[in-house]
Amino acid sequence: AETTNRRTLDSLALTTFDASLRDLFLPLVSGGVVSVPDPDTRMNAALLLRWLDEKRISVMHVVPSVFRLLLKEMESAPGRHLPQLRWVLLAGEPLYGRDVIRACQCLGIGVRLINLYGPSETTMVKAFLHVPETIGDPARMLPIGQPIRGTRIFLISDGRPVGMGAIGEIFIQPPFHLKGYLRDPERTAAAF
C-alpha cells in the first residue's frame, strides 16, 4: 500500500503544469495565501491530512486519487478533519459518485466539490460541475459539467456530432485561437 500511496501522492501539480497557474496566481491576486507542503508531506496521506489541518486550508485542488487517499485517512482516524475547508477542486481523473458520498460523510455538507475538466492543450479548465450533495449511483462517473463562458464542447464520432448519451470524442473550442505544439507540426496536425 505504501508504494501506491507514494506514487499517487507524488503526482501533485508541478509549477510547470498549466494547473499551477490557477493554483498560484488566483489566490495571490484575490488576497489569499498559497501554501505548498514539503515533498515528504506530499508523499504520506496522514502527514498531508495533518498539514492541511494545521495550515487551515480552505481551498484544495487535488486529483481524485489523492483525494481518495485523504478520505481513507479521515475514515481511519475518526474525528473532525479540515474544519476550515470550503472548496475542493478535483481534476485530472474521473470522479465517481462513491467519492462524493465518502466526502460528505468525512467532511460534512459544508464543503463544496467542483469537478473540473480541461486538457493542457486548451490551457486550463474548460468545463466544470458543481457536484450535487446527493448522488444516485455511487459507481457512476460524474459528468464533466458545462463549458466555461466562451467555450464550446462537442462530442463527435466519425466526423459527426453524437446525440445525448452517445459515445464520442471530446472536441473543445475555446474563445481564443490555439497555435498548436511548438515546433511539432505532426502533433499539431493530429490534435488540432
What does this structure look like?
This protein has about 190 residues and is an alpha/beta fold. The chain contains seven helices and eight strands. The chain is globular, with a radius of gyration of 18 Å. Mean pLDDT is about 85; it is low at about 1-10.
How much of the residues is beta strand, in percent?
15-25%
The H/E string reads HHHHEHEHEEEEEEH
Outline the low-pLDDT stretches: 1-12
User: What is the helix content?
Assistant: 25-40%
**What's the shape?**
globular
- Using only CA atoms, what is the Rg? 18 Å
| Strand count | 8
Structural class: alpha/beta
Biggest β-sheet description: 5 strands, mixed
Specify the number of helices.
7
Summarize the SSE layout with pairings.
Layout (H helix, E strand, L loop, with lengths): L1 H8 L9 H11 L9 H4 L2 H10 L4 E4 L1 H13 L10 E4 L6 H11 L4 E6 L9 E4 L15 E2 L4 E6 L2 E2 L7 E5 L11 H7 L1
Parallel strand pairs: 1-2, 2-3
Antiparallel strand pairs: 3-4, 4-5, 6-7, 6-8
Helix pairs in contact: 4-5, 5-6
